[in-house]
Design brief:
26 helices; single chain; alpha/beta; elongated; five-stranded parallel sheet; 663 residues; 3 domains; six-stranded parallel sheet; Rossmann fold; 13% strand; 43% helix
C-alpha cells in the first residue's frame, strides 16, 4: 500500500472519529469508544475493501457489511455518509433523535446500507452467517462457468461482547461446519467491555476457539493500514475457510484521557474531552467537519464502484440470455413471486384425518417447496419431529449447498438469527422449526425479525400440554401469550388441516415473521372450516357454527381445541342452548379487521367462552371481562395426553359443567 493511500485513509479515519464523537456528544447519548477505536477498519473497508455501489445499495452482488457490535453505530453511519449512501449530514447530526435514520442501534431499512438490525450482541454475527450461507446457496444455484453472478463476501464487525454471547458461538460453530469461505468476521479485540476491563469476565483463547470451529484466524494491528491491507487482500483472492480477523485496537483511540478505558465505551466523551481529542488528532474546531480531500476520495471511489456494477451488469445480461430458465428462477426468487392459483393448488392436497398439525403442515410444505424456489427449510435437530424436512431435497453441507434443508443442530437462538440473515439476502424466505417451548431460546431473534421486519416463517410444534409424557419441561403453557406479545409477529394456530393450508397462505402474504403453532397429536377434521382463505383464516376469526336465532353462548377456540369446541357446542345444543362457534386461529389477523366485522363475530351481551390449552392472559380483550376462559394457568405433568385432558378439564363434559356453573 503506497504512502498516499495510507495518508488518505488516515484522514478518513480521523473524520470518522470526529463525526462519531461529535454526534454522540450532541445527542448526549451513545457509544463513542468503538467508532473511534475502529476508525481505521471502517476507513479501510469503505475506502478499499468493499465491492458495492452506494448509489445502488440493493445491487445483488454487493459485498455486505454487518455491524454486530451495534452500539458502535456511529462508525457505520459515518462510513455510509462519507462513502456516498443516501444518509445526509443532517441525519448524522440528528443521531438518536426521534424519527431519525440514525437510530441508537442500526435498524434494517432505516437508511440505505444498513444490512441488518443489530444491537443485541452476537446476533449480527449470526446474521452474517445467514447471509454468507445464502450466497453460497445462490452461487451454487446460479453461477456457471464464465458467469459468476454471485461472488460477494460478507464482512461482520464484532466486539468482545459478541464473542461472549452464546448466539455468536452457536452461529460460528455452524459456519465452520459448513465451510463458509465467503464470511469474514472482524473481531475488535480491545480488551474492554462496558463494565470494565475484559479480564474481569473473560480469559479464554478466542483464537484457538475459532480455529476449533474450522476458521482461519489472522491477527493484525487494527490501526495499521499495511497489516489490514495484507490481510484483506489475501482473503479477497485466497480465502478457503470462514475467517476471523482479530484486530487489536484501542477503544476510544484519540481521546487523550479516556482512550483504552471502559469509560469511553458507552457514554459521551464530554465537551472538554472532545476538545482535547480534536487537538490530539489535529482536527479543526468546526463541528462535523469533512475535509475536501475526503469528499474527493469518495467521489472517485464512487465512480469506480459504479463501473464495477456496470461490468457485472454486462455479464448478468449475457447470463440471462444464455440461461433463460435460470434467469426465470432468479426473478421468481428475487421477487418472491407467488402463483395466483396457490390457494387452489393447496386445496387439492389430499390429507386424511385424523392427522396432527405438524404432519399436515409437512405435506403442504412439500408442495410449497416445489412451487416456490425461495422456500428453504431447517430445524434445530428436530426435523423428524417438527416435520420441516423437505423430502425431495438434500441437506446442505460443507461445500454442498444445492440442498433445501438446513440442519442447524441444537442451536435454536442461532437458527433464528441465521434465518434473519438468510432473509436479508433478498432471495430466500426461510422456514425454521422447533418445539414451541424452545421458542424461548430464540425469542430475541424473533423479536428482531418482527422489528425489522424480516419475512421468516417459524413452524412451532408440540404446542401444548397434550404432547404428553415429556412433561412440563417441554409442555407449552405460556408461550402463545409470550409470542402474541411481540408486535408485528403474526401467530396462527390452525384447528384443522384445511386451516393449516390457509395458514400457510397467510404466512406467505404477511410481510414480516409468522409463527405457525401446530400439534403433535392427531386432530379430527372440522368440515365447517373449509371456506376460502379470504372468508376464513384471513379474517383471523370467523364463525364455523351458526346459531339458530340469538346465541346463548359463543365458543371461541384455537388449534387442537377447535374440534373440542364443536363437541361442547353439540352437548349444549342437546341441553336446549343456541350456540355460535368461532374459529380464532389468529388474534393478529383479527385485529386488522374493521370494527363492524369484529362486532359481527363477538356479539355484545352474549356470554363468550374461550377454549385454548394455554394461559388465559390476553383472552379477555375478545371475550369481555366477564367471559369464561377454559385455559391452563399452571405447568403441566408428565402423563399420556388423554390423562392430561381429564386432569385439566379439556373434555366436553367438564367444559359444559364449567359453563353452567359460571352462570
Amino acid at each position: 500500500m503506497d504512502d498516499k493511500l495510507q495518508h488518505q485513509l488516515a484522514t478518513i479515519a480521523n473524520t470518522i472519529r470526529q463525526l462519531s464523537m461529535e454526534a454522540v456528544q450532541k445527542a448526549n447519548s451513545g457509544h463513542p469508544g468503538l467508532p473511534m477505536g475502529c476508525a481505521e477498519i471502517g476507513a479501510y473497508l469503505y475506502g478499499v475493501a468493499l465491492r458495492h455501489n452506494p448509489k445502488n445499495p440493493r445491487w445483488e452482488n454487493r459485498d455486505r457489511f454487518i455491524l454486530s457490535a451495534g452500539h458502535g453505530s456511529m462508525l457505520l453511519y459515518s462510513c455510509l455518509h462519507l462513502s456516498g449512501f443516501e444518509l445526509s449530514l443532517d441525519e448524522i447530526k440528528n443521531f438518536r433523535q426521534l424519527h431519525s435514520a440514525t437510530a441508537g442501534h442500526p435498524e434494517y431499512n432505516l437508511a440505505p446500507g444498513i444490512e441488518a438490525t443489530t444491537g443485541p450482541l452476537g446476533q449480527g454475527v449470526a446474521n452474517a452467517v445467514g447471509q454468507a450461507l445464502a450466497y453460497k446457496i445462490l452461487q451454487t444455484k446460479f453461477n456457471r462457468e464464465d458467469f459468476h453472478i454471485f461472488s460477494n463476501k460478507i464482512y461482520c464487525l464484532a466486539g468482545d461482547g459478541c464473542m461472549m454471547e452464546g448466539v455468536a458461538s452457536e452461529a460460528s460453530s455452524l459456519a465452520g461446519h459448513l465451510g463458509l469461505d465467503n464470511l469474514i468476521i472482524i473481531y475488535d479485540a480491545n480488551k474492554v467491555s462496558l463494565d470494565g476491563p475484559l479480564q474481569e469476565s473473560m480469559s479464554e483463547d478466542t483464537k484457538l476457539r475459532y480455529q476449533s470451529y474450522g476458521f482461519d484466524v489472522v491477527e493484525v494491528d487494527g490501526h495499521n493500514f499495511e497489516e489490514l491491507d495484507e490481510a484483506f487482500t489475501h482473503l479477497s483472492h485466497h480465502q478457503q475457510k470462514p475467517t476471523l480477523i482479530m484486530a487489536h485496537t484501542i477503544i476510544g483511540k484519540g481521546a487523550p484521557n479516556k482512550a483504552g478505558s471502559y469509560k469511553v465505551h458507552g457514554s459521551p466523551l464530554g465537551e472538554e474531552e472532545v476538545k482535547a481529542a480534536k487537538k490530539e488528532l489535529h482536527l479543526p474546531d468546526e463541528a462535523f467537519f469533512i475535509p475536501a480531500s475526503v469528499k474527493e476520495f469518495f467521489a472517485k471511489r464512487l465512480k469506480d464502484d459504479q463501473m464495477l456494477e456496470s461490468k457485472w451488469n454486462e455479464v448478468f445480461f449475457k447470463w440471462k440470455k444464455t440461461f433463460p430458465d435460470l434467469a426465470n428462477e432468479y426473478e421468481v426468487m428475487k421477487e418472491k413471486i407467488i402463483p395466483a392459483d396457490l390457494e387452489m393448488q393447496l386445496a387439492k392436497i389430499e390429507i386424511k384425518d385424523p392427522i396432527s398439525g405438524r404432519e399436515a403442515s409437512q405435506k403442504i410444505l412439500e408442495v410449497l417447496a416445489e412451487k416456490l424456489p425461495f422456500i428453504y427449510g431447517g430445524s434445530a435437530d428436530l426435523s423428524s419431529s417438527d416435520k420441516t424436512f423437505l423430502k425431495k431435497y438434500p441437506v446442505i453441507s460443507n461445500h454442498h449447498y444445492e440442498g433445501r434443508n438446513i440442519k442447524y443442530g441444537v442451536r435454536e437462538f442461532a437458527m433464528g438469527a441465521i434465518a434473519n440473515g438468510l432473509y436479508t439476502s433478498d432471495f430466500i424466505i426461510p422456514v425454521c422449526g422447533t418445539f414451541l417451548t424452545f421458542s424461548d431460546y430464540m425469542r430475541n431473534a424473533i423479536r428482531l425479525a418482527a422489528l425489522s421486519p424480516y419475512h421468516v416463517i417459524y413452524q412451532f410444534t408440540h404446542d401444548s400440554i397434550f404432547l404428553g409424557e415429556d412433561g412440563p419441561t417441554h409442555q407449552s403453557v405460556e408461550h402463545l401469550a409470550a409470542l402474541r406479545a411481540i408486535p408485528h409477529l403474526c401467530l396462527i394456530r390452525p384447528g384443522s388441516a384445511w386451516e393449516t393450508k390457509m395458514a400457510w397462505i397467510a404466512a406467505l402474504k404477511h410481510k414480516g415473521p409468522t409463527a405457525l403453532i401446530l400439534t403433535r397429536q392427531g386432530l379430527a377434521e372440522v368440515q365447517s372450516t373449509h371456506v376460502s382463505y379470504d372468508k376464513g383464516v384471513a379474517k383471523g376469526a370467523y364463525v364455523i357454527m351458526k346459531e339458530q336465532s340469538k346465541p346463548d353462548y359463543i365458543l371461541a377456540a384455537t388449534g387442537s381445541e377447535l374440534p373440542l369446541s364443536v363437541e361442547v357446542a353439540d352437548q349444549l345444543k342437546k341441553k336446549g342452548k343456541d350456540i355460535r362457534v368461532v374459529s380464532f386461529p389468529s388474534w393478529e389477523l383479527f385485529d386488522m379487521q374493521d370494527a363492524s366485522y369484529k362486532k359481527s363475530i363477538f356479539l355484545e351481551d352474549v356470554p363468550t367462552i374461550s377454549i385454548e390449552a394455554g394461559i388465559s392472559q390476553g383472552w379477555h380483550k375478545y371475550i369481555g371481562k366477564d367471559g369464561l376462559t377454559i385455559s391452563v394457568d399452571q405447568f403441566g405433568y408428565s402423563a399420556p395426553a388423554k390423562a392430561l385432558q381429564k386432569e385439566f378439564g379439556f373434555v366436553s363434559e367438564a367444559i359444559v359443567g364449567k359453563i353452567f356453573s359460571a352462570k
